[in-house]
Specification:
Belongs to the citrate synthase family. It comes from Hymenobacter glaciei. InterPro entries: Citrate_synth-like_lrg_a-sub, Citrate_synth-like_sm_a-sub, Citrate_synthase, Citrate_synthase_AS, Citrate_synthase_bac-typ, Citrate_synthase_sf, Citrate_synthase_typ-I. This protein has 403 residues and is an all-alpha fold. It contains 18 helices and three strands. The protein has a three-stranded antiparallel sheet. Strand 2 and strand 3 form a beta hairpin. It is globular and about 70 Å long. The termini are far apart. Bound molecules: acetyl coenzyme *A. Acetyl coenzyme *A binds next to helix 17.
Length: 403
C-alpha cells in the first residue's frame, strides 16, 4: 500500500508552512474560533455570554473539565483553590536574587518553573488523576500570589499574603494594592472588570503560547515546566506583550502632541518598522469579538472611576476611527485586537504597564492547563516538526591553517 510517511522519509519531502498559517497541530474540544465570522466559544459557550454572566473560576472549571460546574462542584473547586493560595516561604528568597530591573514576566516564568522543586512529584510522566488534579489546583491557586509578589518585589514593597475570605479577583487586587499601613478598599466595579478581562483571555486555541505549552508538554514535561515556557512565549511583543506596547504607544503619541495621523502613516510606511500595536490578528480577519466586549468594558470602568476624560482613551478612539477608515488597514483586514483596549482598563485599575502581560498570563492560565491536560489525556505523540534544509550539502573538514 502507498505509505506517505515512507515516501517522505525516502524523498525528504515535507510540507512547509512557516508560522503554521494553515497547519493544524492537534485536535481539540476546548475552544472554537471562527476568524472570518468573529466567533469565539469556550466548550460551545459564546464568549459574550460567559463575559457577561460567569465568574473567572467558573470559566476555568469549564475549560479544564469540559462542563459548567454545579454549585456544589464550584464550591468544592473554589474551596480547594483557596486552600492552596499560600506559596512556600522559601520562594520568597528566590525573589531576592532577581535584580530590581527584572521584567515581571521573567520572574513569573522562573517562579512557576521553580514550583517543580517544591512539588517534585509534579514532574512524573505517570501522574495519577488525583496527582494531576492537585497540580492543577496548586497552579491556579498560587499564580495570583506569585504574580502579585512580582509586582510588590519590583516596587520594593512588603509582600502581602493571600486573603482566603476574598474571591479570586478581589484577593489578587488586595495582594497587589494593599499596604500594612493602609486599608485597601475593594471596589466592586474594579473586581468585575478584572473578572471580565480574565475570562476574555482564558483561552484562544492554538496561539503561540498555548502551542508552546502543548509542545513542551508533549515531551512529557511537567505542567509547571510547560506553563513556564508558555509564559515566556506570551511575553513576546507580537503576542501577549502587545498590551504593554499599546499603552506605551498611546503614551508616545500623547507625548508627541497627539497627532494620530502621523503614527498611522508611520505604520503604513514599509521602510519604517513601526506597527500599530493592538491592531491585526493572525486569525480574526473581520473583528476580534473580545475587543468588542473590552471596548464597552473600558468605557464602563472609566465612567465608574470618573476617568472618562482620559487622554489615552481619546487617542485610542481616534486611532481606531482613523485606522478603520484607512484603505491600508481595510485592505489588510487590520482591526483592533483584544490588547488594544485591555491596557486602558489595566491602567485605569492602577496596574502598572510592566504588569500588563502578567495579567494576560493570569487570564490565560486555565486555557494552558486545559490544553496541557487534553494533550496528556489524549496521549499525543511528542511534537517534532520537520524542516527544509537549505545549508551546504557536504564538505570535507579543513584544518584551521587551511581555512
Ligand atoms: N500595523 C501596520 N501594519 C500591519 C500591522 C500593524 N499592527 N499588522 C499587520 N500589518 C501589515 C503587515 O505589514 C503586512 O502588510 P503587507 O501585506 O503589505 O506586507 C500585512 O498587514 C499582514 O501582516 P502579517 O504580519 O503578515 O500578519 P500576521 O498574521 O503574520 O501577524 C500580528 C499578525 C502579529 C498580530 C500582526 O498583525 C501584528 O504585528 N500586530 C501588532 C502586534 C499585536 O497587536 N499583537 C497582538 C496580537 S493579539 C494577541 O496575541 C493576544
Amino acid at each position: 500500500a502507498f505509505d506517505i510517511g515512507k515516501l517522505r522519509d525516502q524523498t525528504g519531502y515535507v510540507t512547509l508552512d512557516s508560522g503554521y498559517k494553515n497547519t493544524g497541530a492537534t485536535k481539540s474540544a476546548i475552544t472554537f474560533l471562527d476568524g472570518e465570522e468573529g466567533i469565539l466559544r469556550y466548550r460551545g459557550y459564546p464568549i459574550e455570554q460567559l463575559a457577561e454572566k460567569s465568574s473567572f473560576l467558573e470559566v476555568a472549571y469549564l475549560l479544564i473539565y469540559g462542563a459548567l460546574p454545579t454549585q456544589a462542584e464550584l464550591d468544592h473547586f473554589n474551596g480547594q483553590i483557596t486552600k492552596h493560595t499560600l506559596v512556600h516561604e522559601d520562594m520568597r528568597k528566590i525573589f531576592d536574587g532577581f535584580p530590581s530591573a527584572t521584567h515581571p514576566m521573567a520572574i513569573l516564568s522562573s517562579l512557576i518553573c521553580a514550583l517543580t522543586g517544591f512539588y517534585p512529584q509534579s514532574v512524573s510522566p505517570d501522574l495519577s488523576p488525583e496527582e494531576m488534579e492537585l497540580n492543577i489546583i496548586r497552579l491556579l491557586a498560587k499564580m495570583p500570589t506569585i504574580a502579585a509578589w512580582t509586582y510588590k518585589n519590583n516596587m520594593g514593597h512588603p509582600l502581602n499574603y493571600p486573603r482566603n475570605d476574598m474571591d479570586y479577583c478581589a484577593n489578587f487586587l488586595y495582594m497587589m494594592f494593599s499596604f500594612p499601613t493602609e486599608k485597601y478598599e475593594i471596589n466592586p466595579v474594579v473586581v468585575s472588570a478584572l473578572n471580565k478581562l480574565l475570562i476574555l483571555h482564558a483561552d484562544h486555541e492554538q496561539n503561540c503560547s498555548t502551542s508552546t505549552v502543548r509542545l513542551v508538554g508533549s515531551a512529557n514535561a511537567s505542567l509547571y515546566g510547560s506553563v513556564s515556557a508558555g509564559i515566556n512565549a506570551l511575553w513576546g511583543p507580537l503576542h501577549g506583550g502587545a498590551n504593554q506596547e499599546v499603552i506605551e504607544m498611546l503614551e508616545a503619541i500623547a507625548a508627541d502632541g497627539g497627532d494620530t495621523s502621523k503614527f498611522i502613516n508611520k505604520a503604513k510606511d514599509k521602510n519604517d518598522p513601526f506597527r500599530l500595536m493592538g491592531f491585526g490578528h493572525r486569525v480574526y480577519k473581520n473583528f476580534d469579538p473580545r475587543a468588542k466586549i473590552i471596548k464597552v468594558a473600558a468605557d464602563e470602568v472609566l465612567q465608574a472611576l470618573g476617568m472618562q476624560d482620559s487622554p489615552l482613551l481619546k487617542i485610542a478612539q481616534e486611532l481606531e476611527q482613523a485606522a478603520l477608515t484607512d484603505q491600508y488597514f481595510i485592505e489588510r483586514k487590520l482591526y483592533p485586537n483584544v490588547d488594544f483596549y485591555s491596557g486602558i482598563i489595566y491602567k485605569a485599575l492602577g496596574i502598572p504597564t510592566e504588569m500588563f502581560t502578567v495579567m494576560f498570563a493570569l487570564g490565560r492560565l486555565p486555557g494552558w492547563i486545559a490544553q496541557w491536560k487534553e494533550m496528556r489525556e489524549n496521549k499525543e505523540p511528542i511534537g517534532r516538526p520537520r524542516q527544509i534544509y537549505t545549508g551546504e550539502l557536504e564538505r570535507d573538514y579543513k584544518g584551521i591553517e587551511a581555512r
